[in-house]
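dumping these here so i dont lose them again. two proteins, back to back, each one seq then structure tokens. dont judge the mess
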Amino acid sequence: MTVEYIRYRVPGDAAEFERAHTHAARFLAGAPQCVDYELSRCADEPAAYILRITWTSPEAHLKGFRVGDLFPGFLAEIRPYVEAIDEMRHYEPTAVRGTGQAVPSLYEWAGGTEAFERLTERFYEKVAVDDVVGPLFAHMDAAHPRYVAMWLAEVFGGPARYTGERGGYAHMLAHHLGKSITEAQRRRWVSLLADAADEVALPDDPEFRAAFMGYIEWGTRLALANSQPGVSPPREAPVPHWGWGVAPPYLG
């Protein structure tokens, strides 16, 4: 990824400038080389604007978009403001990044470790008597529910205990290899977990449940694929970190 910053100083009609960029944005939206874009206006100096465009690479921008069919239309919309550009450069993201505390993690929103332990305890009670998915756990370690709670807590933004105490992704993967999980078993797993989430009163707001079930769908489909005979998935990977996605929590 590379981030292009175009800094403008617009002495004229700000509304017309923003309207031109609204029209230009449709060419960015249609470009396969473009990841995302955003036009920001300076609150302290209203004549100053920054257009941020994330490209898949500098080459994708300069040798893809710039020579493609969409660029002439984009340029035609912003041409009146080319002389207002103070800077136009590519920047490479660094490892210095993170999030603040304005938006709680899914782990915090759910209620922390205790909430996930309640969830997995009730879930595996249901699994034990289920005729579809139960056979997969016929010889389950008594501590297994607690370990799965530890995994979910880390995935959703809690402490990295599964990585530190259980071996992280590689250890979780080992539990699925060679299991030949069926689609019917995967779906029952998802259904029972959703029922358990209701029964232990995990937050039921649409934003949390959409993010929570999004991970469960993704994770169970990956587990199913990794469990099939003859597959050889990568053995080393970080524990996934799941966030709110497109629907952050409704804070009122």
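---- next one ----
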Amino acid sequence: MSDQISLSSLDLAALLCSRVCHDLISPAGAIVNGLEVLDESEDEETKTFALDLIKKSARVASARLQFCRIAFGAAGSAGAQIDLGDAGSVAKGFVEDDKVRLAWNLPRVMLAKNRVKLVLNLLLIGQQAIPRGGSLTVDPIGEGETLGFRISATGLNARVPAAAVGLLGGGEAGHTIDAHAIQPYYTGLLARECGMTITVAPEGEAIVIQAANKPQG
């Protein structure tokens, strides 16, 4: 549509790469800092702290890499399918921490790659809805190859991520997309590629994000 943001393939690739780097730079930097402390310190307690920091940061970096590989990367050849069970394990490793819990209630089935990428990206939108932590629940809508998704984000002061909603629909022509805004924009592209529509709305104390197939006819 002419009134939507239009990005070249090069700009889209560059911005997605920037987003991935943004996710990885914090744990990577913490690993470097831990190694420097380990190298410079002779105190055993400090060395133990540095090793714990390195181990924790390495786990975080690994979880983020695995998640980004599926959510943003090729993750197989064109037309490939991905196991939703594997995607759920990767999502838990990425999302869960001291503040956020994830209930992944999708069936363990093989699903088209872009649909799996879509649900992982919707999960990131759900994270934005609970900035102070809480719970994320992922449920199926329908079944089979046309499986859709319902994500409920519940937490203190849960709110609809307003900026993300417009970008999910393609944004407005003339607006600038940066590395932060590229993720919801990309999520909208995935939904349209899959023939699905996304809705985001409050429902009681939760913010509910749904991706369902467009009606035929």
